[in-house]
TrEMBL record:
Top-level taxon of origin: Bacteria
Subunit-level organization: Homohexamer.
Signal sequence interval, chain numbering: none
Taxon lineage: Bacteria, Pseudomonadati, Thermodesulfobacteriota, Desulfovibrionia, Desulfovibrionales
UniProt xrefs under Pfam families: AAA_26, DRTGG
Residue ranges annotated for the DRTGG domain, each copy included: 214-319
Protein name, as recorded: DRTGG domain-containing protein
Amino acid sequence: MIGLYIGSTTGYAGKNMIALSLGMKFQKDGLKVGYMKPVGAVPGKAGEKVGDEDAFFLQEVLGLNEDPTLVTPVVITHDFKTKALAGQCGTPILKIRQAYEQLSKDVDIMVMGGSGSFLHSGKYCGVDGPTVAKLLGLKTILIDRYSKELNYDYLMSAKESLGDSLIGVIFNDIPLHVMDEVQNVIKPFLENNGVKVLGIIPPDAIMRAITIRDLSNRLGGKIISVSSKADKIVESFLIGTMQVENFMTHFKKNKNAAIIVGGDRSDVQLVALEGGAPCLILTGNLYPNDIILTRSEILGVPIIVVRDDTYTVAKKMENIQVSHKLRDIVKINQATQIINSNVDFQAIKEGLGL
């Protein structure tokens, strides 16, 4: 039996996407796959049993039905943190080992999903990535998602900690303007220092997409018009604070963008509605006039009203696009295609000894 730990340099780097896609790929190759998320950061319940929401989702997609308390033996709740900081949480690493031994009995490969930062998250209670990986003898793949820069110092530290058990790194969400540097400077540097680059994944609009309903919930807003279309997806956003003429120029290039606009800017609102925007997000807790509401209903464009100002909503939208979870079949299919097109699966298999 082989164990593979999927970790990352930061939170929300794409661990679930990689773990799920690799698990499905292994299954397609005829391997019996087990899954485990040893440390859960998103508590949830399955019946009366506490587990992790991400783990519930991945188990379902992979067709598994294991005990949630085994799949995620350590769930980070406020109560757990309080006890851990007081030195009263026992030995959670032993719970992880016992659960792993039980779940891995009848499988060919165990895919382990990490939580937060591989090197740091869980250090305070002894369940950080290196500790778990070394205890269980796991091979490791790290995900590094681009955010202004890549974490090559972090990757070098991980290599020092893990040695040959680090199969390599997958770079995620790499924009076009830094692709050349990643391929021709960073990749050769890392590989010359023993860190193999297993894949370089470009940004993908579908993977960043979110339904209007989810978007409203995340923004703490209220859908006041055409709620029947709340399952439509939004791929990006555009701020409508400029003059109408300038807005129209930008809007023509971003047709599937949610429009963030002040509730008092009926001129921009009307242009966005007539232009077929997927939804309007009206800021400042200001409701639109009757003309805008009527056109919204006729054209089938939902309107969300939020309390925050336009700048605050825009910052929240940026965070939502980075942190929104992999949760629907469209994204699962897209993730699978992305992995197949941009990740060296053969190198992963060789690193695992398959």
